[in-house]
Amino acid sequence: xxxxxxxxxxxxxxxxxxxxxxxxxxxxxxxxxxxxxxxxxxxxxxxxxxxxxxxxxxxxxxxxxxxxxxxxxxxxxxxxxxxxxxxxxxxxxxxxxxxxxxxxxxxxxxxxxxxxxxxxxxxxxxxxxxxxxxxxxxxxxxxxxxxxxxxxxxxxxx
Length: 158
What we know:
Layout: H1 5-25, H2 31-40, H3 42-57, H4 65-96, H5 103-125, H6 132-155
């Protein structure tokens, strides 16, 4: 049995989307929300690059940006859902805190870690022809992450 890049993209998308859906079920200002926030930073930086790299290293996939995105669309959907819910939770927690609440500082740290992994990880993949498509997908994924993180923070609060 062979694991395909499409299979990796589906598994990563389901895990990201499932984590985002879990965040919708957690009550605000509860203990579960704190644990969700602590865990929310790791999923996108672990699963999305893994799926992008799997798609880039599978030679059955097209090497252009659109062809790679057509393989990775389940991961993009999962990333969008996870980012929207996480962005909503992070901006809500940082906005309602007092000066003893370090949620705003942690939000900045989480954003910096995401930027480093997606942007610097993409730069690390550029020099190699086999992994160059993964670099472009990481950069596009970072834009998707920021857009849905911001949109989730502002639109889901309405």
